[in-house]
Amino acid sequence: MRRYSSDWYWYYAINYTLVIIIIFPIYWTLISSFKKPSELITSEPTFYPHDLTLQYYDQIWNFDRLKRLQDTESEDSESSGVEIESKFRLDGEGVKRPFMNSAIVSAGTIILTIIVCTLGGYSLTVLNTPLKNFFFLLVILPILIPGISLIIPLYKLLKDLGLTNTHLGLILIHTCGMLPLGIFMMRNAFNSIPSSLREVAMLEGSSELKIITSVMLPLAIPGLLTVMVFAMYVSWNDYIYAFIFINSPENTMLNISLMKIALGGSQFEMKWGSLTAGSIVSFLPIIIFYTFLQQYFVRGVTGSAVKE
């Protein structure tokens, strides 16, 4: 494609248009989280906040304090016989504890996924048996099964194991969901490494564990970090499993807490300000995590698609 040709202009015009379409919802959510209520809900929307405010972030982060304030106002109104309109009408929980719960589940999922997928991918790479490809096929076949169809058997299994309403149960579910894709990517990452390196390490008397940690893993870092990004994305953005398998307030996940805060305890009213602020809090860790690992993520995805 020649520079400044008609194809060149069309190429960049289409790409810039797609970028704007993708980024605009994120931009609108961001600016809405800083608008005052009078500017947020209006018939004449603005494309930037005229008066910046952090009240929505303060509400969702300090909900416990706000709820105590609301309870105090209710008691004062009852004692005085005068009904006082509370400044805050939020039901549910703040995002401090749910944020930490989601962080714990995501960290556990990432660690366990890395361990299992690394060992599984390495074993399917060095295993010299006629059934190696058959085992690999069995591993990746679950990709074709929708996760929503497994809710009932998963719930019965976790209940029998006593893992319902626990972080460990969610970690195991997310890890099992990541195994097909993670083992597939790690197997291709190890396959792209020359086998002669492993043979030299074996001649020097190195054990398989030392070969994995000292020789293979440093060369498979792009694939490993790509698996980490996918594991973070799957566990952090989960809603269905967290909604069904977790039912205690102290173990509530972030997305469930944001849903409760956004509804404000009413199915007929949506707290748009709290929802936009909660959305920013929710996907900010994903953006930061991906930003630091972006170059490795791209290399891992492209490297996992081709076997050298």
Word description of this protein:
The protein has 308 residues and is mainly alpha-helical. It has a domain at 96-304: MetI-like fold (Orthogonal Bundle), CATH 1.10.3720.10. The chain has 15 helices and no strands. The protein has helices at 6-32, 37-40, 55-61, 63-80, 96-126, 132-140, 151-161, 167-191, 195-203, 208-219, 221-236, 240-245, 254-263, 272-292, 294-304. Helix 5 packs antiparallel against helix 11 (221-236), helix 8 (167-191) runs antiparallel to helix 11 and helix 9 (195-203) runs antiparallel to helix 10 (208-219).
Number of strands: 0
CATH class of the domain at 96-304: Mainly Alpha
Shape: globular
Low-confidence stretches: 73-92
Q: What are the secondary-structure elements, in order, as H or E? A: HHHHHHHHHHHHHHH
Could you state the CATH homologous superfamily of the domain at 96-304?
A: MetI-like
Question: And the CATH topology of the domain at 96-304?
Answer: MetI-like fold
Structural class: mainly alpha
Mean pLDDT over the residues: 80
Give me the secondary-structure topology.
Elements: H1 6-32, H2 37-40, H3 55-61, H4 63-80, H5 96-126, H6 132-140, H7 151-161, H8 167-191, H9 195-203, H10 208-219, H11 221-236, H12 240-245, H13 254-263, H14 272-292, H15 294-304
Helix pairs in contact: 1-14, 3-14, 5-8, 5-11, 5-13, 8-11, 8-15, 9-10, 11-14, 11-15, 13-14
